[in-house]
């Protein structure tokens, strides 16, 4: 596959046979156009959405405000794993919203302990710290690892280091962008927070070399099992296990950010389960609520979690009764309806279809991923991935590029085999336009 990609590029450069082709999308319907104008007039401009204005969703499908139907192949960046508006999760939301919505952590509520007990049993940890968004949970995990390093490992106060991988992504907070290697994330927002070190993703030897030099000051190694925002980058086989061994050897915590890869997305409950590796700290979010509201969590065993004491960390909404009840229903639904197996099986069908497209369509260079987290790599010399996504929209499928020439594919885990075929047909038609 790599040789084929190189041959295509050499041919294109040497012969200058192909001119980059753009795409003019169909105009929006009148209601969509009006909604888009209003958002542009009154909203901030920190996003560049695909031009579609969604109004409703069910399962793997969504409809725009003008009634046009689409297959959702982004799932709100993997937040809608259980499908749009799953009735069991919606019922849990409604029931709790009519009883008690918020108590704050100034008082106990009758849902938090039940949720913590359920989640710790499902994921195999002793303790859960509830938060709201994925980036909040990731920030919390960094605080927790640092606190552990000072309280248990006896790292000198103020010197703890956190190791992350190049091209990581865990949000847009000051902490997250300080850990980023992407100038579009951190540029123009300094001064940035200190205390991070970087290693190439997938390179266990580089991690070992770094820990050999500074393990005594390192609190944790924080990784995504698969890098989603970077373009669905799957590490080499055995990489996560090697990282686990290195962290054990050097007395460093291992944190897995499974906000995007967790909860069945890759065909296992957690992506790290493919490698039979358990982290010391687990970060979850997105699909933890089935896409109904922000819910996130940090899980760890007591010897790590209890280093943070009362008054040292918190959240007004974290652990609220609605979030707890919805999150429990979301995980129960995921497990009881066997969505994880469906992700594995439909993911295999999607992979086979994408590989066929890569063989037949010149603008498609490669595909990669696991389960229902996939990427299609587009030849940037021939077309922008953005234009391919516009063509896909006009063929009844919506998704979005990441890192310029990569199209991320992450449909809800409830997607059917027929809907996979429908999606592949949409890709074939869209790619054929750019092959002409």
Automatic annotation (TrEMBL):
GO cellular component, one term: cytoplasm
Keyword Transferase among record annotations: yes
Gene Ontology BP terms: L-arginine catabolic process to L-glutamate; L-arginine catabolic process to proline via ornithine
InterPro entries the UniProt entry points to: Aminotrans_3 (IPR005814), Class-III_PLP-dep_AT (IPR050103), Orn_aminotrans (IPR010164), PyrdxlP-dep_Trfase (IPR015424), PyrdxlP-dep_Trfase_major (IPR015421), PyrdxlP-dep_Trfase_small (IPR015422)
EC main group: transferase
Superkingdom of this protein's organism: Eukaryota
UniProt keywords, alphabetically: Aminotransferase, Pyridoxal phosphate, Transferase
UniProt pathway: Amino-acid biosynthesis; L-proline biosynthesis; L-glutamate 5-semialdehyde from L-ornithine: step 1/1
Cofactor or coenzyme needed: pyridoxal 5'-phosphate
Catalytic reaction equation(s): a 2-oxocarboxylate + L-ornithine = L-glutamate 5-semialdehyde + an L-alpha-amino acid; L-ornithine + 2-oxoglutarate = L-glutamate 5-semialdehyde + L-glutamate
KW Transferase (keyword) present: yes
Documented EC number(s): 2.6.1.13
Molecular function as annotated in GO: identical protein binding; ornithine aminotransferase activity; pyridoxal phosphate binding
Family, as annotated: Belongs to the class-III pyridoxal-phosphate-dependent aminotransferase family.
Protein's name according to its UniProt entry: Ornithine aminotransferase
